[in-house]
């Protein structure tokens, strides 16, 4: 298709994938926001055990997509994997809901259900996560310039869910009463059900390639017996039981996960570099991928403190009291603006979805707009006769929404910035080095905020909000750049294996993040890491300044060499 004849608007399938991913990320980030608090305040785990378990959980979350992607590519197809993975995650949230409903009277049962729920989340995520992302690019022909914009839109869906999840789950579950954590898990489960329903109802209608073929269907020549419901359910049950066992063993018996991840990376490296068909140029580029992945571990290990040690800090040493009185007239003004926005959305849907084939999607959107309108009306009825809304204290879990909010706000700026630099645009390794330094700067900012402050003194909210802003800027310099770099440098025959290296590095970083969170100072105890003494929050945050800052400087120092390796001729 000539470029001039391509439609300017994006295919409707992109927005189906956007909504599906948004609700799944709502589920993941929402439950993650309260997870460490549930473990320490309801299940009464020690902070050290809870942080280590958190690292094991998030590490396995990023490891299982390798298995789920393999099964989808060869047996189930993307759509079937997305739906089954979503169902398993919804079941996991419901199990966590029951766990959080029973911990006060049936502690042993609640603990068993807790591990079962996390196992379902790990297993379901493995089937869901890798498959929905791979469908976005298939909506367009090769060379279509809309593809980059499509990934940006999809990335906004991820962060919209990442922002809404902690807010809703935090407000409903993180109330100060441990018995209310169950509502956060229920909200996550409901969002996952919505995600699955969107896929079931609209995938066949809209998620199609430019030729009109439905994407993500079952691969050809798959034995029919492997697709029988009982066989699939059996496979899911076995996978989930395996995840429960792996999580329990790593958290309570022996910390094997780090060694497993290292062995997997070494094995992949041996497989790739022993291939005689690789040219010198390809080997050099593959080396760049391994080197970049090594530095990524330091970034995510520090970044992912958000779900553990930084949540402890927000809960215990951040002054979250606001005492704001929001006048009712401002709520009414906001309601008018929202109603106008809903009307604009209604008119847009009316124009874009006027065809008979779009009636189900059109009526679904109309129904959602009506529900939002009724919600706005309900809020205004509730405030009749009242003068103001009192915002007293922010739950600590809500701070986990800041990263996604900053991403949504500033991603367009970074997308605008790089091309405007022209010939002065930094290379990919330099951008990633800058990302590491911005992350270190975030920790330096919060370290100054707690310097010479006693553990029982709470500091201003500006320190943690400023830190999350700098961390988000660092993410925008590193995450999309690194992922794009892996795609560009990978030889076609090893593209999946090298993407696995990226996921393995992220998994290792999340496990490392949990281990580092166990060093968070508690009740005046002094801990050491390699001779470095950690006595208070200042020492703890300074550890990340040194670790991530050193990694950033080293990456910048070798960036020219890496750039030369990327461009080496055959």
How would you describe this protein?
The protein has 570 residues and is mostly helical. 73% of the residues lie in helices and 3% in strands. The chain contains 19 helices and 4 strands. It has helices spanning 12-41, 47-63, 65-76, 78-102, 107-138, 146-173, 181-206, 229-252, 257-273, 280-303, 309-316, 328-352, 359-382, 402-420, 428-450, 461-489, 495-517, 537-557, 559-566, and strands at residues 321-327, 388-393, 527-529, 532-534. Strands 1-2 form a two-stranded antiparallel sheet. Helix 2 packs antiparallel against helix 17 (495-517). It is globular.
Give the overall form. globular
Main pleated sheet: 2 strands, antiparallel
- The total count of strands amounts to 4
Q: Stretches where pLDDT falls below 50 for ≥5 residues? A: 1-5
- Alpha plus pi helix count: 19
Q: Approximately how much beta-strand content do the residues carry?
A: under 5%
Radius of gyration: 24 Å
Determine the fraction of residues in helical runs and give it as a percent range.
over 70%
């Amino acid at each position: 298709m000539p470029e001039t004849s391509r439609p300017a608007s994006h295919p409707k399938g992109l927005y189906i994938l956007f909504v599906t991913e948004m609700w799944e990320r709502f589920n993941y980030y929402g439950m993650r926001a309260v997870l460490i608090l549930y473990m320490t305040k309801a299940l009464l785990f020690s902070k050290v055990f809870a942080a280590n378990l958190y690292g094991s959980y998030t590490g396995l979350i990023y490891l299982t997509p390798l298995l789920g992607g393999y099964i989808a590519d060869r047996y189930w197809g993307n759509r079937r994997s997305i739906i089954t993975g979503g169902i398993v995650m919804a079941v996991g949230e419901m199990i966590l809901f029951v766990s959080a409903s029973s911990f006060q009277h049936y502690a042993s049962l609640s603990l068993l259900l807790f591990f079962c729920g996390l196992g379902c989340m790990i297993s379901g995520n493995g089937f869901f996560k890798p498959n929905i992302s791979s469908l976005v690019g298939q909506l367009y022909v090769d060379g279509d310039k809309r593809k980059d914009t499509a990934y940006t839109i999809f990335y906004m869906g991820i962060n919209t869910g990442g922002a809404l999840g902690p807010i809703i789950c935090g407000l409903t579950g993180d109330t100060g009463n441990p018995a209310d954590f169950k509502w956060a898990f229920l909200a996550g489960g409901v969002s996952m059900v919505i995600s699955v329903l969107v896929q079931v109802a609209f995938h066949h209608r809209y998620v199609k390639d430019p030729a009109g073929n439905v994407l993500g269907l079952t691969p050809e020549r798959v034995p029919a017996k492997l697709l029988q419901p009982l066989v699939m359910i059996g496979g899911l049950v076995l996978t989930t039981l395996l995840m429960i066992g792996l999580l329990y063993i790593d958290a309570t018996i022996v910390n094997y996960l780090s060694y497993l991840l290292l062995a997997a990376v070494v094995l992949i490296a041996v497989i790739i570099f022993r291939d005689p068909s690789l040219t010198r140029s390809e080997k050099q580029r593959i080396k760049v991928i391994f080197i970049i992945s090594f530095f990524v571990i330091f970034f995510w290990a520090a970044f992912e403190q958000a779900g553990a040690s930084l949540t402890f800090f927000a809960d215990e040493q951040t002054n979250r009291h606001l005492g704001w009185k929001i006048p009712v007239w401002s709520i009414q003004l906001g309601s008018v603006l929202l109603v106008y926005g809903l009307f604009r959305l209604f008119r847009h849907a009316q124009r874009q979805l006027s065809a008979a084939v779009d009636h189900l999607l059109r009526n679904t959107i109309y129904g959602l707009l009506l529900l939002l309108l009724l919600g706005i009306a309900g809020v205004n009825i509730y405030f009749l006769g009242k003068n103001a809304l009192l915002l007293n204290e922010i739950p600590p879990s809500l701070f986990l929404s800041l990263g996604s909010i900053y991403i949504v706000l500033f991603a367009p700026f970074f997308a605008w910035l790089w091309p405007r630099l022209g010939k002065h645009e930094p290379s990919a390794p330099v951008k990633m080095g800058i990302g590491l330094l911005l992350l270190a700067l975030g920790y330096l900012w919060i370290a100054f905020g707690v310097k010479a402050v006693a553990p029982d003194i709470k500091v201003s909210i500006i320190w943690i909000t400023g830190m999350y802003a700098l961390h988000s800027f660092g993410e925008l310099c590193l995450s999309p750049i690194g992922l794009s770099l892996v795609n560009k440098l990978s030889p076609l025959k090893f593209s999946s294996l090298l993407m696995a290296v990226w996921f393995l590095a992220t998994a290792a970083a999340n496990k490392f993040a949990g281990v580092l969170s166990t060093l968070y100072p508690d009740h005046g105890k002094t801990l050491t890491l390699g001779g470095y003494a950690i006595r208070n929050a200042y020492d703890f945050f300074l550890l990340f300044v040194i670790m991530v800052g050193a990694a950033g400087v080293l990456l910048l120092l070798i960036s020219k060499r890496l750039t030369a390796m990327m461009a080496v001729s055959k």
